[in-house]
Amino acid sequence: MQNTIETDILIIGAGPVGLFTVFEAGLLKMRCHLMDALPQPGGQLTEIYPKKPIYDIPGYPSVLAGDLVQNLLKQIEPFGPGFTMGERAETLEKQADGKFLVTGSRGTKHITSTVFIAGGLGSFEPRKPPIANIEQYEEHGVEYFVRDPEMYRGKKVVIAGGGDSALDWTIFLAELTQELTLVHRRTEFRGALDSVEKVMELAEKGKIKLVTNAQVIGLQGDKALEGVSIQHDTEGDIHIAADHFIPLFGLTPKLGPIADWGLQIQNGAVEVNTLDYSTNVPGIYAIGDINTYPGKLKLILCGFHEATLACQSAFKYIYPDKKLSFKYTTVTGIEGLPAPVV
Amino acid sequence: MITITVIDRENVPHALETPIDMGLNLMELCKSYDLPVLGTCGGMALCASCHVYVRSAHTLHPPTDDELNMLDSAFFVQENSRLGCQIKINNPDLDGLEVELAPE
User: Chain A residues with CB inside 8 Å of B46's CB?
Assistant: First the structure.
């Protein structure tokens, strides 16, 4: 059986606001564990715009998003947070002792006194093409990621998309598959130039089939996928046999399972009380871009403020009998937390 | 003030009055009128939730590489597809512009 992770604050979302929570909680000697669907910390700053400058972080005339994440990771290092990365928070159950059990998409269990939802835009999930029955073939021939290239050896595979990942996987899988077709909506590809050239070369040599100005519009198969229908702009519909269909259209954020946790939700955001950014469920807080309240601004700096106040409230929730004395870091310095006992 | 017509996904037209000196883009304008445009990424041409079809004959500034990249991985894309967040409302010539919200 897997070890269960125990913590004071389980932070769902390892973006800037989630990361800074570890610092503010650490000052109050509360231990934090971060969980994120993405494999690396930083949320959309790392995933979407690591090289873009941010101009409204107090004290930084300009800071690259990726650098801000690195600085935050350094800032929270003394407090030794735990990480469950590449795993989406799936279910939340209240335990008899008042704590929460949060289980991830790969089965990792977390027991926590409080939950901080710092999920930003939501969890990043593959963009699914609008094909009516596509979900019926998930796990039966439709994959949105290439996890194990070996499963495509000797198979008939159709890849759709025009970006780098579609090109890269086409090049990689061309050698393995029995038959590989790349379908793209336009003639031009916007991926890296040398990848585009390689794909064109593979098509010329007949190692892959390239179908441009076309899109996959239908999937067929009794239980598992057996074929795809492709609509061509000028040549009408094409049907080809396929064991696998891999649509690669990037990631898009979705609120995901959090929507089913009994929280008050308005327009895809979690409603909070601005006194302490608590939700309607005692012990669960929502901070950063994922929350909403009158006057809400989706700014990192506002999320930092929300995290700070929520930590004070969480302390009182976890230790109702303890006195909380407010201290300035300039006076007291930073005292790290001891390594967790495993 | 100019007027831009946005046709929603139920095919209902909305005439939106807007100033042209506030640095607004079309996604922000739609949101300010509570039309069902998410604008998830905040206007960085990174999510396509503000995808629109331009229906009138207005000449808009051409899309940037970022916008073309995003449209490349969006769905229901047509010749007249644009991202609302990349259409800056800064020009009196945009008066009478008509756009339609693309399917979600």
Answer: 48-49
The angle, 0 to 180 degrees and rounded to 10, between the axes of the packed helices A16-27 and A300-318 is: 40
Structure tokens at A252: 């898009």
A18 touches B at CB < 8 Å? no
User: pTM for this structure?
Assistant: 0.78
Give residues with Cβ within 8 angstroms of B65, minimum separation 6.
A190
Whether the per-residue pLDDT at A1 is higher than 60: the answer is: no
Contact check, Cβ <8 Å, B75/A161: no
CATH number, residue A220: 3.50.50.60
| Span A186-232, pLDDT tens digits | 888 888 899 999 999 999 999 999 999 999 999 999 999 999 999 99
Domain closes at, from A217, A249, A281:
A249
**The domain at B2-101 falls in which architecture?**
Roll (3.10)
Q: Which amino acid is at A25?
A: A
Query: What ipTM goes with this model?
Result: 0.77
**Residues A216 and A178 grouped into a single domain:** yes
Query: Could you tell me if A289 and A326 lie in one domain?
Result: yes
